[in-house]
């Protein structure tokens, strides 16, 4: 079988990358095209919208209050300390918000931090690939990350997970660099551990350091003095980064430190502890295939080839290092009580590095199947998005389309924005030009998939953004509550989430008091968050309904403001 014989060939390390890379002709133009694609993926969806539920609203709310208070140590949400929010991503958002607003609106300026972290994620992934597999492979994992389905929309939210995702990619770079420069690799690994801790607490520390500590069990090449020096330097660098923020909290007020310790509940990450929820082993199996697409089938092919000893087998550092990180994260997610899809984002870099190894050895039929599946899928999706938008602009949102989009309101007319339409048309035309019949290759299939994901996200972020934002913003809800609230009195709250509190405070300055607080008795109103209300708001003794509502088209989340008294 010719394709199998080809897999036995190993490209020499000293080979000219212009020879081994299929993009050798017109290299400069192709490099520019790749940078443009990645830049479009990074920037689309960052601007022209309000903070969205959940992580986006929480982290922006914290950053906005940091900028207002000029207090960068203690995270606050609606004037209450929120020590469960790790500080690194809000710190970055506070910096971009302070520098860029005005001219940008505060939410857009804060989300520039997301763009910075996405650029770092792609850069660290490419640099790690270059260290582990050579220069010719540096773009393949980057394109796989761009095309990862699990990052669709989630990667463009201001969340702790985007900080942790970039930190995991930096940790991969540190371990990869340690093979050549042990001290520098240790310093990078330590910086990654510190960034991960400041992004997500102790789970971030574990996800960056535990795989590095497990590598000596993977082979004798990791049981060396040089790698021991790498781990020692990593510990020296990470320790002050990890200790600085908790120490500063304790110095400010021991109660703040105690609140942070209470918020760092191990039961949220480890099963079988007091207070931890039951694990759902099938959750990861049900979601991993589509969350990790297209990396997962490419990894299966890599295991099929390398597992039989071809192309260096499975013991090469380029396989062992990302495999250690991917396995650690997968086991942690499988055992995690009540996981969420956004917590799978840090898998992107290690899975992309694994998936990239045997892209060039794919059977032509397999790569063609992936290529045409992507072209047909994204082409049909783009046609549907354009058709629905034109129909909604001309006739208003039809009941059938509203039901498909889970919108309880019909007749909504999408807005006409010339710049958004021109951008959407440009993206569509560029995608058509890119996927036109041309010299096919395995890497071209990966490129086309990444371009298709960028196209669909770009259409949503341009022509559909006003509609999506109208569905997801809390601004009308906050304005309704503020208008109906008794003037000059506090508002007691019950079951109101932290994201909603952050949004209400940003949009209308609404500050609420917990119903368990002694101050609650002084409040003249009660704000309650319900789920679906089939029969209207339930009556409460001694309270009268002053206002009720929710986000447009969302019947699964309702807010009721009660006035106290007859």
Lay out the secondary structure:
Layout: H1 2-8, H2 17-20, H3 27-43, H4 55-69, E1 76-77, E2 80-81, H5 88-100, H6 106-133, H7 139-146, H8 160-178, H9 182-200, H10 202-214, H11 225-252, H12 254-263, H13 281-291, H14 295-306, H15 317-335, H16 348-356, H17 364-395, H18 399-404, H19 418-434, H20 442-461, H21 465-472, H22 475-484, E3 491-494, H23 498-508, E4 512-514, E5 525-530, E6 543-549, E7 558-564
Parallel strand pairs: 3-4, 3-5
Antiparallel strand pairs: 1-2, 5-7, 6-7
Helix pairs in contact: 3-6, 4-5, 4-23, 5-6, 6-7, 6-8, 6-16, 7-16, 7-20, 8-9, 8-10, 8-15, 9-10, 9-11, 10-15, 11-12, 13-15, 14-16, 15-16, 17-20, 19-20, 22-23
Task: Summarize this entry quickly.
This protein is mainly α.
Q: Mean of residue pLDDT? A: 91
State the low-pLDDT regions, or none.
1-20
| Ends distance | 85 Å
DSSP summary, beta strand count? 7
Main sheet record: 5 strands, mixed
The proportion of residues in beta strands is 5-15%
Structural class: mainly alpha
Share of helix among residues? 55-70%
Q: Globular, elongated, flat, extended or rod-shaped: what is the shape?
A: globular
Order of strands across the biggest sheet? 4-3-5-7-6
| Rg, Cα atoms, Å | 25 Å
Helices, by number, come to 23
Oligomer: single chain
Secondary-structure element sequence?
A: HHHHEEHHHHHHHHHHHHHHHHHHEHEEEE
């Amino acid at each position: 079988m010719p394709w199998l014989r080809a897999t036995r060939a190993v490209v020499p390390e000293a080979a000219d990358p212009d020879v081994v890379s299929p993009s050798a002709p017109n290299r400069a133009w192709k490099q520019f095209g790749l940078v443009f694609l990645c830049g479009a993926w990074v920037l689309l969806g960052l601007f022209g919208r309000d903070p969205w539920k959940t992580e986006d609203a929480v982290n922006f709310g914290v950053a906005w209050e940091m900028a207002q208070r000029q207090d960068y140590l203690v995270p606050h949400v609606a004037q209450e300390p929120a020590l469960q929010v790790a500080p690194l991503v809000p710190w970055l958002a506070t910096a971009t918000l302070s520098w860029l607003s005005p001219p940008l609106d505060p939410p857009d300026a804060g989300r520039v931090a997301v763009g910075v972290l996405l650029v770092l994620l792609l850069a660290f992934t490419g640099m790690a690939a270059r260290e582990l597999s050579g220069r010719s492979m540096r773009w393949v994992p980057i394109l796989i990350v761009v095309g990862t389905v699990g990052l669709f929309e989630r990667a463009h939210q201001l969340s702790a997970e985007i900080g942790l995702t970039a930190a995991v990619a930096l940790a991969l770079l540190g371990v990869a660099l340690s093979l050549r420069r042990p001290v520098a690799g240790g310093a990078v690994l330590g910086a990654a551990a510190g960034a991960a801790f400041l992004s997500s607490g102790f789970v971030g520390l574990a996800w960056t350091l535990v795989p590095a500590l497990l590598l000596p069990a993977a082979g004798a090449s990791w049981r060396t003095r040089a790698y021991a020096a790498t781990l020692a330097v990593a510990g020296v660098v990470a320790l002050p980064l990890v200790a600085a923020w908790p120490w500063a909290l304790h110095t400010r007020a021991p109660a703040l430190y105690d609140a942070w310790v209470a918020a760092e509940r191990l039961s949220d990450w480890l099963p079988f502890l007091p207070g931890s929820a039951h694990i759902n082993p099938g959750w990861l199996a049900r979601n991993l295939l589509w969350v990790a697409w297209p990396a997962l089938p490419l990894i299966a092919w890599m295991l099929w080839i390398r597992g039989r000893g071809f192309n260096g087998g499975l013991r090469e550092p380029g396989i062992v290092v990302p495999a250690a990180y991917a396995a650690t994260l997968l086991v942690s997610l499988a055992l995690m009580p009540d996981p969420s899809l956004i917590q799978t984002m840090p898998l992107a870099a290690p899975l992309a590095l694994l998936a990239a190894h045997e892209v060039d050895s794919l059977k032509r039929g397999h790569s063609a199947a992936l290529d045409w599946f992507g072209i047909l899928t994204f082409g049909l999706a783009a046609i549907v998005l354009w058709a629905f938008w034109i129909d909604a602009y001309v006739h208003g949102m039809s009941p059938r389309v509203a039901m498909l989009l889970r919108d309880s309101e019909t007749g909504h007319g999408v807005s006409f924005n010339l710049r958004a339409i021109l951008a959407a048309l440009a993206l569509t035309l560029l995608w058509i030009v890119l996927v036109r019949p041309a010299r096919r290759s395995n890497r071209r299939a990966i490129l086309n998939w990444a371009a298709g994901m960028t196209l669909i996200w770009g259409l949503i972020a341009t022509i559909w953004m006003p509609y999506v934002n109208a569905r997801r913003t809390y601004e009308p809800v906050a304005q309704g509550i503020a208008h109906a609230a008794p003037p000059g009195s506090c508002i007691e709250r019950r079951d109101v989430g932290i994201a909603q509190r952050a949004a209400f405070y940003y949009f209308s300055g609404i500050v609420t008091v917990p119903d368990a607080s002694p101050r609650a008795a002084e409040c003249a109103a009660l704000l309650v968050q319900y789920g679906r209300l089939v029969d209207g708001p339930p009556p409460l003794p001694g309270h009268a309904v002053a206002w009720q509502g929710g986000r447009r088209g969302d019947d699964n989340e309702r807010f009721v403001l009660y006035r106290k008294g007859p």
